[in-house]
Design goal:
The protein has seven helices and eight strands; from the N terminus they run H-H-E-E-E-E-H-E-E-H-E-H-H-E-H. With 225 residues, it is α+β, with helices and mostly antiparallel strands. The protein folds into two domains: 110 residues, Chitinase A, domain 3 (Roll), CATH 3.10.50.40; 60 residues, Recoverin, domain 1 (Orthogonal Bundle), CATH 1.10.238. A hairpin with a 5-residue loop joins strand 2 and strand 3. The relative contact order is 0.19. The N terminus and C terminus are likely disordered. InterPro entries: EF-hand-dom_pair, EF_Hand_1_Ca_BS, EF_hand_dom, PPIase_dom_sf, PPIase_FKBP, PPIase_FKBP_dom. Its EC number is 5.2.1.8.
Length: 225
């Protein structure tokens, strides 16, 4: 699968990402063992450290995972997916809770070594497929390459919400689709616009009121909305 575009906040993908991704629940804050926390060591910090990552951002990174007990490597992103860095949305449970925490406020080019306790990793169950035993403390070495505006960012919502009423009407989204189609210049049958518009409302207008509210759109629970 091709990596997401760097302008995810603007592209059609912000509304048409696979439903499984959009429905990924943000995990509850403050895990079962509140006393346990992620330990972060910054190995390299660029002089120009901006932008810093925040919840909902789309990150591109390489990371290696080790078992703290014996130092054995259980994961290396450079040997997966033809060696391409991983793309994921921060803070929404696409990675283990410990990595969601460890990669907050991180900037492109920064490298970190982090230690994640079992309660913020795979817990008592472990992860047999990933060769991670029960109650395992994990160590990750992370190199972050890119911090992009997430697919459901506040900026993207406000761009579509022309009348600033904190909800997206069919007309507003229809206009947004027309503008996006005009930008990429590809020829499409008029029915494509209608099909996409209908699909957007089917998947996002949960209360069926004919609008996509800030809450319905904002699946990543940004504080700004």
């Amino acid at each position: 699968r091709r990596p997401p575009r760097s302008d995810m906040g603007r592209g059609l993908t912000l509304l048409l990402l696979p439903l499984a991704l959009l429905a990924a629940p943000a995990q509850a804050e403050g895990g079962t063992a509140a006393a346990e926390e992620v330990k972060i060591e910054v190995l390299h910090l660029p002089e120009a450290c901006s932008p810093k990552s925040k919840k909902g951002d789309l990150l591109n990174a390489h990371y290696d995972g080790f078992l703290a007990s014996d130092g054995s490597k259980f994961y290396c992103s450079r040997t997966q997916n033809e060696g391409h860095p991983k793309w994921f949305v921060l803070g929404v449970g696409q990675v283990i809770k410990g990595l969601d925490i460890a990669m907050m406020n991180m900037c492109p080019g920064e490298k970190r070594k982090v230690i994640i306790p079992p309660s913020l990793a795979y817990g008592q169950q472990g992860h047999a497929q990933g060769k991670i035993p029960p109650n395992a403390t994990l160590i990750f070495e992370i190199e972050l390459y890119a911090v992009n505006r997430g697919p459901r960012s506040v900026e993207a919502f406000n761009q579509i919400d022309k009348d600033s009423d904190k909800k997206l009407s069919e007309l507003e989204i229809s206009q947004y689709l027309k503008e996006e189609f005009a930008r990429d210049g590809k020829k499409r049958h008029p029915s494509v616009h209608d099909e996409i518009l209908a699909d957007i409302f089917k998947k996002n207008d949960h209360d069926g009121d004919g609008f996509i509210s800030a809450k319905e759109y904002n699946v990543y629970q940004h504080d700004e909305l």
